[in-house]
Amino acid sequence: MTQWRYDRLTWPEMNTAIARKPQPVVALAIGAVEDHGLHLPLSTDNDILESVLAECGRQAGGDLLVLPTIPFGLDEHHMDFPGVIAIDIETTLAYLSQAAISVARHGFTHILIVNGHGSNQSVCDLAARKCVLATGAICAATTVNAAVDPALVADVLAAERKGGPGSVGHACEYETAMMLHAQPGLVQMDKAERDIGQLKLKYFNWDHPAPSAYAWQDWWSRFSRNGVCGDAAAATPEFGRRMFEVTVQRFVELVREFQAIAVKPRVDHH
Ligand SMILES: [Zn+2]
């Protein structure tokens, strides 16, 4: 099997990967260590990222190289829950962008920052932008966690979730189901709760996949009893398997689409 772990290559093998045509896409994941209700471990975001990206790496036949996950992100707003690791905006942006820029400096032209934790999203967008501006590489931000942003799998999520409106948010029907599929030994299903405390207003909507007209992130202990936002009790391993498989299949497609984007020369019109 072709090696898909970026850091498991030797440096001469790295040169071979860089010279390969088409060149592999490099995935740089960033997650979080944060509360996920009474029933899921703090590693949930990282577990979902790593299980999905490992399977994508295996299936991509050399078109995807996956870096080790950056395990911590922007999490001050969860600090009322024991164990959470919070890194500030500036440090997260600097660390993440410097990792992406390092990859580009070796000659990789297509880099995907893969976010596993909602509040990292704007930082991931800016880190990708910094990498493009600093190196000319094609660097974009995306996610494989539908509770962060369901764009990749919104149709399946909407059609097949069982918990109804508000069921998908955080430590929710979706994340619990993904863990029941990927890491069943880490799920204490007897403690899984339904807690839909997030606001649903005319222009603000925390439920996925429906969009919201404004972005706002409150302190979590103000609206969630135990760190759940959604209906964790509705999760099943079957839903998790379905979401996992469709995510892997579409993300590999996304990688190949992204890989084919041409790196065009800039034009100085002065
Ligand atoms: Zn999560």
**Amount of beta strand:** 5-15%
Query: Quick one: CATH class?
Result: Alpha Beta
CATH level-two architecture: 3-Layer(aba) Sandwich
Major sheet summary line: 4 strands, parallel
CATH fold label: Rossmann fold
Distance between the termini: 50 Å
Let me know the average pLDDT. 96
Write the layout of secondary structure elements.
Elements lengths: L10 H9 L5 E6 L13 H16 L4 E3 L22 H17 L4 E6 L5 H15 L2 E6 L10 H7 L12 H10 L11 E2 L34 E2 L5 H23 L11
Parallel strand pairs: 1-2, 1-3, 3-4
Antiparallel strand pairs: 5-6
The protein binds zinc ion (ZN).
The site of zinc ion has 6 residues, from helix 2.
Describe this protein's structure:
By secondary structure, the chain is α/β, with parallel strands linked by helices. It has one domain: Creatininase (Rossmann fold), CATH 3.40.50.10310. It contains 7 helices and 6 strands. The strands form 2 sheets. The protein has a 4-stranded parallel β-sheet with strand order 2-1-3-4, sandwiched between helices. The chain has a two-stranded antiparallel ribbon with strand order 5-6. Helix 2 (44-59) packs across helix 7 (237-259) and helix 3 (89-105) packs parallel to helix 4 (121-135). The longest helix is centred in the last third of the chain and has 23 residues, at 237-259. 47% of the residues are buried. The structure holds zinc ion (ZN).
